[in-house]
Structure formats: C-alpha cells, structure tokens
Write a structure and sequence with these properties.
The protein is α/β, with parallel strands linked by helices. It has one domain: Rossmann fold, CATH 3.40.50.720. It is built from 6 helices and 6 strands, in the order βαβαβαβαβααβ. It has a 6-stranded parallel β-sheet with strand order 2-1-3-4-5-6, sandwiched between helices. Helix 4 links the parallel strand 4 and strand 5. Helix 2 packs parallel to helix 3. It is globular.
C-alpha cells in the first residue's frame, strides 16, 4: 500500500473468508506493512457479530497492544448471503424475521459496531484507510432485477452507515478514507450456491484490485461506494 506511511499497521476482520484471507495474505507480503492482525469468529479474541460484546472486547484488545495501535488500514471483509437454513429470498412471500435478522446482524449491525469501536483506533493525524466490503446489489439505484431482499436491504443500510460515518470521521480524522467496496463476483463460499465457482473471479485477483482501489482514494473520496475496478457505484 504505497499511499500509507512506511511501517503501516493493518487489521483484517473476516480474514477466514475467501476475500479477507486473500487481502490478509497480500498485506503480509507487503514489505511496507509492519504489522497485520487478523480477527474473526475463530481468532483470539474472537469477533462474532451475533455477540455484540465481542466487538468492543476485540477493539479493547487491539487498543491494549502497543504493536497494533494506531491503525492505518482497517478492512471489514465479513458478510453473509445464505445460512445453513435459508438462502436469499426470491419473493416477498419468503420473507421471515430469522433470515432478515441474521442478514442485518452480519451485513449491517456488525460492521456498524466495528466502525463505532475501531474507528477511534485509526491514526488521527496520518493517512489511514478503512474499507467495508459491500455489494453492488445493495445499490438502490441499480436494482433492476429485484429479489434477494435481506441481502440487498442489509447492504443498502450498510452503505448508509458508511456514508454517515465518513461525514463524522472527516471531522476527527481528516486524512482517513472510509469506503464501501464492491468486489465483483468472486469464487467463495458466499457465492458458491449461485455458480460462484463458474462465474466468479479468484479471490486473489479481487483482493489485489480492492487494495489497489483503496490505495488510490483521496480524503475527498471518503464516504464513496466503489467497485473493484475503481468505478463509482450509484447508491
Ligand atoms: N463473493 C462474491 O461474489 C461477493 C460479491 C459481492 C460482495 N461480496 C461481499 O464480500 C464480502 C466477503 O465475501 P466472501 O465472498 O469473501 O465471503 P466468505 O468467503 O463466505 O466469507 C465471509 C466472512 O464473513 C465472516 N462472517 C460471517 N458471519 C459472521 C459473523 N456473524 N460474525 C463475524 N464474521 C462473520 C465469515 O467468518 P467464518 O469463517 O467464521 O464463517 C467469513 O470470514 C462480503 O461482505 C460479501 O457480501 C462478495
């Protein structure tokens, strides 16, 4: 990441996922990165978005480690489209609280609480970057096909939270860039039931593109919704 200070510190949340793992690997290979920490449901400490207190506890852990704070790069690579019991809804008649709640907990509430607890750990006076993986199907303006109610709505709400947080962060962290990123269709467990292996790109390619886009964004781009190729997406 050429735009970050030499010796920058990074944190990837959701590093067990396909895209998160690829981003983690690329950051570990970057000689300019002095520390990279990976957190997720299986890490120590764990972050599980179904357990609100785990988010604050993980942030407290990072704050207490002299090696990891302040952060220059925060990536939130978590997300869910389907669970063992339910997939994305094709029709209104398929909507239920359980799937809506699970989608919003993982795709919206968890990342929002990550921003609440981890944004204060971003370097306040140096350039820093914060990317939350969203999805183009969360674009209200681009919704032509319908369906996937919970996933679309949870990502649209995530986008609003990111935009709102970017406005607040610009006051306390004027050099920080916070962006919602769309990785494109990627071969991963999330996309697997939807022909992800056939139509998706390898996670390694998506990760490289996403880090490249992030590296290219200026402070004036904070609060934007960008695709892996740098294209600005409509809200
Ligand atoms: N793949 C695509 O085609 C595609 C397209 C558009 C957008 N995206 C977005 O890109 C992001 C990454 O997707 P991916 O394809 O890499 O998916 P993935 O391989 O299925 O990874 C999902 C990640 O989310 C974590 N996670 C799920 N529920 C969680 C919870 N309750 N608390 C904490 N972590 C949780 C998983 O942790 P565990 O390992 O513990 O389950 C895993 O690390 C998501 O936001 C997704 O919406 C992906």
């Amino acid at each position: 990441m050429q735009s970050l200070p030499p010796g920058y510190r990074a944190l990837v949340i959701g590093a067990s996922g396909a895209i998160g793992a690829a981003m983690l690997q690329q950051l570990q290979a970057d000689p300019r990165c002095s520390q990279v920490l990976a957190l997720g449901r299986s890490s120590t400490p764990p972050i599980d978005f179904a357990e609100e207190a785990s988010i604050a506890a993980a942030a407290e852990y990072v704050r207490s480690q002299a090696d990891f704070a302040p952060l220059h790069l925060l990536v939130v690579a978590t997300g869910m489209l389907h669970s063992p019991s339910a997939g994305p809804e094709k029709r209104l008649s398929q909507l239920n609280y359980a799937h809506l709640m699970a989608s919003f907990t993982t795709n919206t509430f968890g990342p929002a609480l990550v921003l609440a607890h981890f944004a204060p750990l971003l370097a306040p006076q140096e350039r820093s970057l914060c990317a939350v993986l969203s999805a183009k199907v969360g674009s209200i303006g681009d919704n032509r096909l319908g369906g996937w109610y919970s996933y679309r709505a949870s990502k649209a709400a995530l986008n609003m939270l990111i935009k709102t947080a970017a406005i607040e962060l610009a006051r306390t962290h004027p050099k920080t860039v916070l962006a919602a990123l769309h990785p494109g269709t990627v071969d991963s467990p999330l996309s697997a039931p939807f022909r992800g292996a056939e139509i998706g790109r390898p996670a390694v390619a998506a990760a490289a593109d996403l880090l490249g886009v992030l590296d290219s964004l200026g402070a004036e781009d904070s609060g934007s919704f960008c695709a892996y190729d740098g294209q600005r997406l409509p809200w």
